[in-house]
Amino acid sequence: MKDPYNVIITGVGGQGNVLAARILGNIMAAKGCNVTIGETFGASQRGGSVMSHLRISAKTVFSPQIPKGQADLVVALEPAESIRVMAGYGNMNVKVLSNTRSIYPVGVICGEQNYPAIEEIKESLSGLCGEMHFIPATDEAVKLGHAILGNVMMIGAVAGLGVLPFDESDFEKVMAGYVSGTKMAVNLKAFEKGREMVKNK
Amino acid sequence: MSVLTDKNAGKTALLMGNEALVRGALEAGVRVAAGYPGTPSSDIIENLAKVADERNIYVEWSVNEKVSLEVAAAGSFAGLRSLCVMKQNGVNVASDFLLHLALSGTRAGMVLIPCDDPGSISSVNEGESRHFARLVEVPLLEPGNFQEAREMVRWAFELSEQFRTLVMVRSVTRLSHASGNVTLGELPESDTKAYFRFDGNLLDAQTGPVITAPVPMRHANQQKKLKQIAEVFETSKFNTYTGPEKPELLIITSSACSLYSVEAVSLLKLEDRVGILKLGTTWPLPEKLVKSHITKAGAVLFVEEVLPFLEENVKVLALDSIEETGIKKYYGKINGTIPSVNEMNPDHVIKALTSIIGVEYSGMPADYEQKANIAMFTKAPARELTFCPGCPHRASFWSIHNSLAMDNRDGFVCGDIGCYTMAILGAGFNSIKTAHAMGSGTGIASGFGKLGMFGMEQPVVSVCGDSTFFHAGMPPLVNAIHNGSDMLMIILDNRGTAMTGFQPHPGLEVDAMGNRADATDIAEVCRALGATVVTSDPFDIAGTQEKLMDTIENGKGARVMILRQICALSPEKKGKKQYEVTVDTSLCRGTDCGCDRLCTRVFRCPGLVWNKAGGHAQIDEIICAGCGVCTDICPAGAIKRSEVTK
């Protein structure tokens, strides 16, 4: 693992970004790493872009803000947000893991702005990163019963990429602090589905 | 069990900065905690409320910050360790009592945690609370990481008790709302009985009355305490130095900026040339420590957020001791090396270091940056802030905007702080034309409403939230009534302190700890003050506009209208749809004639999408909250709603 390993989880207010960052952070802290998570919320429930910065280090405490151009992994809960992150933190080695479900900004809803087709997003992104994986996390999560499970799928996909040393049992230990026993099964199913989706590409 | 009350001392957990501050207070045996909600501080009182029963603590959301400081002070006067929490501009509200409390002194340990918001990420100002420590003469601590946040609060209580003075522990957004590893300490058991002693000598603040007189004596006493505290600070473990014995450049920093400084020095590989003096005790300064480091350094760079607080204080010290420290070059906010506004990050420190030392660094190649920026501008459409789907404010401002437009006398709205501040934007049809402090919209409206004698004929409206009404909305309303100001105060009552996460306020039948509480009825208060009061449900567009038009056109003096509808995100409402909403595409006129997409172009609810290919509006089932208001917006009757049967 590169030290520090810098992860950005990006998305739109209301998608559960902060919780996803907490879960991933707790997994890595439980593995003995120093973890710093920088979160931006407040206006987050009002449709704005939301980013969490995770700094994972075996050595020391890092600041809650990743320096310019220094992201190692970008997890985008919303596809266009992955492009926004590149302008500040991207580089030609960064790995991008993106959900395919779009959330339209108000400007797009009201017909003033265009939202690019997913193929356009992929094309732009391909020139700005080392590798990228698009997975239909929200669509698969809806099949499992709730859109919010898409975030667990994205965490499963991070495990599937093999960039951070954690597996399903590490995830289960941390999730036990968030969900009751009956809901664990569906969360594990979502995690596994996410892992498969990047592995089977 | 919450990690906050975990008895396994020595265990390490990932805690949010605010949780680490809470853990420190619990380890210090805090008994009384009070505050007023405000990002990024709110989670501190919320977390304490959750463990109030378990840890035998009294926790309250007070009506405003000044009262919260008074409530906490009572705990200290009665021998209980007490905590008070607020955001940066809250300290301005509390500052009058703060000044007097510094003079009277405290008894059991008392700590004030102000959380500043550099870069105003969740604020409408970029206030600085540290100057209050110097202004009212109390000690100030600034944690530089998550572990220190826990340890420092615990120590602050001991320091406060030792010197019988309030101690400030200043946090910032990037600490309060960031998370990191924290090793837990011991939780104490305590059953101190509360008792307020007042039978002692008038001049003895520990046994007699707690007062500020005689002022010169107590003022001198407080200044003497600060001198003694400065001595304690000289050897505090929260002041650390890393770097060479004689650094070419010395960074003096505090708070989250210390982490940015460490990272910048490391990325530039300047560990052998640049030293970092991280101060945890920032007022009064540990003068000997600071002087000795300056003396050994070639030059000095201050890295801090908001105002140049450390920079000014250290420069005064350096001038006073110039024979010892020597003539040095100082860099910081004052000479423009560090940006004078907005929050800091590692890149700002890197830029300062490269300009001073002359090393090269690029975090992002220029061609990559250009390509990424083009991609962002063309492929990542901007996300304008807006009200949530189903938000009552969108409906309220729709009616307010339309009523003022129909009145046609250039009426306007004076606003203040809350989600509804977004009505300065398209989200609220650009209705708000002044926006300042809590309650200020109504105070300003009270002033505008007296300008008729100078020919002003514009209708004057203020908006104020329900929590804001209790916090700072009543005095300006009384002022407007008494002085006969022609204005309409609209109270946007969404049943809670919604923006910061539904903290209760005096209008609700529940308190911070979840116990049943007496509610104060806003309408009854306004009537008792002497205002005429009209109430309406903002989701009833026609009814609300009729009442608004009537009071705007025919009303004189100070009037109140209460628009009551529960927030769409409130726990009782979230996820429950009142209506199933659909668009009858055969009736939707789209851009062809008439309305020109009134629903998606102007009303702009995120749940309503313009289907370009089909040329009609449509509902986004996942986003729509089912409030049904858009049915009343559509002039063609194309948006249908049917009540959801439970």
Description:
The complex is a heterodimer of chains A (about 200) and B (about 650). Chain A has helices spanning about 15-30, 80-90, 105-110, 120-125, 135-145, 150-160, 170-175, 180-200, and strands at about 5-10, 35-40, 50-55, 75, 95-100, 130-135. Chain A is α/β, with parallel strands linked by helices. Chain A has one domain (about 5-200): Pyruvate-ferredoxin Oxidoreductase, domain 3, CATH 3.40.920.10. In chain A, helix 2 (about 80-90) links the parallel strand 4 (about 75) and strand 5. In chain A, helix 6 (about 150-160) crosses helix 8 (about 180-200). Chain A is globular. Chain B is an alpha/beta fold. Chain B has four domains: about 5-235, Rossmann fold, CATH 3.40.50; about 240-355, 3-Layer(aba) Sandwich (Rossmann fold); about 390-565, Thiamin diphosphate (ThDP)-binding fold, Pyr/PP domains (Rossmann fold); about 580-645, Alpha-Beta Plaits. Chain B is built from 22 helices and 25 strands. In chain B, strands 2, 3, 4, 5, 6, 7, 8 and 13 form an eight-stranded mixed β-sheet that branches. Chain B has a six-stranded parallel β-sheet with strand order 17-16-18-19-21-20, sandwiched between helices. In chain B, helix 17 (about 440-450) runs parallel beside helix 18 (about 465-480). Chain B starts with 11 loop residues before the first strand and ends with a strand. Classes of the chains: A alpha/beta (about 200), B alpha/beta (about 650). Strand 2 of chain A pairs antiparallel with strand 9 (about 180-185) of chain B.
Topology:
The complex is a heterodimer of chains A (201) and B (646).
Chain A: E1 5-12, H1 17-30, E2 34-39, E3 49-57, E4 73-76, H2 79-89, E5 95-99, H3 106-109, H4 118-126, E6 131-135, H5 137-144, H6 149-161, H7 168-175, H8 181-199
Parallel strand pairs in A: 1-4, 4-5, 5-6
Antiparallel strand pairs in A: 1-3, 2-3
Chain B: E1 12-16, H1 17-27, E2 32-35, H2 42-50, H3 52-55, E3 58-61, H4 65-77, E4 82-87, H5 88-104, E5 110-116, H6 130-136, E6 140-141, H7 146-163, E7 167-169, E8 171-172, H8 173-176, E9 178-183, H9 215-234, E10 240-242, E11 249-253, H10 257-267, E12 274-278, E13 281-283, H11 287-296, E14 299-303, H12 309-320, H13 322-325, E15 329-331, H14 346-357, H15 366-379, H16 392-407, E16 412-415, E17 432-435, H17 440-448, E18 460-465, H18 466-482, E19 487-493, H19 522-529, E20 532-536, H20 541-554, E21 558-564, E22 579-583, H21 598-603, E23 608-611, E24 616-619, H22 629-633, E25 639-643
Parallel strand pairs in B: 2-3, 2-4, 4-5, 5-7, 5-8, 6-7, 11-12, 11-14, 14-15, 16-17, 16-18, 18-19, 19-21, 20-21
Antiparallel strand pairs in B: 1-9, 6-13, 10-12, 22-25, 23-24
Helix pairs in contact in B: 1-2, 1-7, 4-5, 10-14, 16-20, 17-18
